[in-house]
TrEMBL record:
Gene3D superfamilies: 1.10.287.130, 6.10.340.10, PAS domain. The lineage of its organism: Bacteria, Pseudomonadati, Pseudomonadota, Betaproteobacteria, Burkholderiales. This is histidine kinase. Residues 308-361 form the HAMP domain. It catalyses: ATP + protein L-histidine = ADP + protein N-phospho-L-histidine. GO terms for cellular component: plasma membrane. It comes from Massilia aurea.
Amino acid sequence: MSNLLGRFRLNSLRSRLMLLVLLAITPIAIVTVLGGLREREAAIRASEENLKRLTALAAANEAQSIDRARQILVDLVSVPALMGDTAGCNSLLSNVLDRNEGYVNFGLIQLNGEVSCSAVPMLHPVNLGDRSHFKRAIAERRFIASDYVFGRVIRKHTINLTYPVIDRSGDVVAVVFAAMDLAGLDTFVNDISMPPGSILETADASGNLISRRPDPERWFGKRVTGEMLDAMRGPYDRALVVRGEDGIDRLHAFARVGSPTLTDYTITIGVPTDLITQVARDAQFMSLLGLGATTLLALLAAWLAGEKLIVQRVRGLTTVARRIAAGELDTRTGIEYGNEEIGRLAAALDEMAENLQKKEAARGQAERELRAADQRKDEFLAMLAHELRNPLAPISTGAHLLKLLHSDNAQITQTCAIIARQVEHMTSLVDDLLDVSRVTRG
């Protein structure tokens, strides 16, 4: 492990080369990440626009269904049989029900709230006087689409669409209604393919669900969450991320179903945010995967190239430098010289070794010449000492004999003493000269 860590020290050329590769790739990685974020934002914006168009289309479809019911009621109030006897009214409404799909009942409500006739036979009297849509139809004298109701006559999930019957004097005398089956309210969704996990919801003004895909039967009459109800109350030109009852975050677009005089309903279509950004995330993942593979290949190339082109050559130069320092001046790098740094360094190192080798050879030659000169000097000094010492002995002997023969002659005795001192002095000089020769020889 320590050997492996040692290879990755930042003070090594190979590690620094790999660091340079990482630094070069870092801007590309940043651009890739930022590009992925921009693609994600673009995907969300595109999804918002598509959702708005799709939701508006669904709202128009539902509004068309409800407006068709309004037109049926408008036509009904002009038929005299509607306000005739009960049997004739029941027959009329039964025929209307048979000719129109998506409805579960048609009926006529008197001002006291009693249902006086119905397309579906009533087993007992039914009073709808407490229904808000009945009261509003009388008070506002116009078509009213009710909130969610569970029918008292047909016992189904419905919305009641009401229209006032106005006599010739302009007074409201009754209210005709059509009970629309919620299961058939939004046939539009059956014709389109929504992404997995997407939902379509239509709620009344109170937040009760009157249309829901998928699993409509399970959701009829249930209230949306407070967050969703606030979003449904507008404005409608926005898209919001709302967490659903299942805990999934979805991007929702909203639209009003028809004009304010037609319904108080709001429709929304929500697509899971994960699906919206999935394509962008996949693209970014593939980009990052490609970048990662490129980075690994670049690092591997840097490792191998650094080993082959730099580390091995520098290691060889280091070995050569150490051998030269140890005195092996005939060592050479063996690296081909080129117009690049390591080649020039190898050339300089070889040139230095060659110069040192030449200087060492010159120094050896100088030492040999010096030793030869010293030898010649020693020989000369020895010869000189011999030539100087040889005459001194006879002179000293002669002076001694002369002194013995003329010991009574003071002048001769003095002269012999002078000769003896000079001979002794010359002998000392010769000895000193020989000592100097021995010192210089070491």
